[in-house]
Amino acid sequence: MSTRPFTRRDAAALSAIAAVVVAAVSACFSDRAPTTVDVSTGNCVVPPVPSGATVVFISNFNFAPPTAHVKSGSSVAWVNCEATAVPHTATADAGGRFDTGTINQGKVSVQTVSGTGTIPYHCAIHPSMKATVIVDP
Question: For 65, which DSSP code?
Fold first, then answer.
């Protein structure tokens, strides 16, 4: 087995991988999702959101994460990260617990959720898009 010297390209790749791992681990131990995420449509930068808000990204006709856990009375910020000008909503399936209205590309809608329980929701424009917010006391 032959070895080759460690190059600047190797260092850059290792640095990039380390940054992704640190961001992922930080998100696991934080009440707040990262404010920048690489999505398959490119780099999506979150517009200003309230401190402590849980961020849900909308990309490729999906909500990410598909299940968000939040505490009652906290905020959820839905960010439209589509690569093209495709609008979306995040609309609670029943009970009118939240409805973001139309969220255009690159924009955010913040909703405060209260009470407790599981809230299934969908995009009113694209009903096949579904996800869940679980509200804890």
Answer: S
Does residue 93 fall inside a structural domain? Answer: yes
Measured distance CA(75)–CA(85) in Å, rounded = 25
Q: Considering the chain, what is the average pLDDT of its residues?
A: 79
**Cis peptide leading into residue 48 (ω within 30°):** no
Residue at 5 is within a domain: no
* 17 to 5, 12, 21: CA distances (angstroms): 19, 9, 6
Total domain count, the chain: 1
Whole-model pTM?
Answer: 0.70
For the chain, what percent of residues have pLDDT higher than 90?
60
Mean pLDDT calculated for residue range 69-73: 97
CATH number of residue 67's parent domain: 2.60.40.420
Report the C-alpha gap between 94 and 87 in whole angstroms: 21
Burial 94-103 (b: 16+ CB within 10 A, else e): eeebbebeeb
Q: Where in the sequence is the domain holding 64, given as residue range(s)? A: 33-136
- Would you say residue 92 has pLDDT above 80? yes
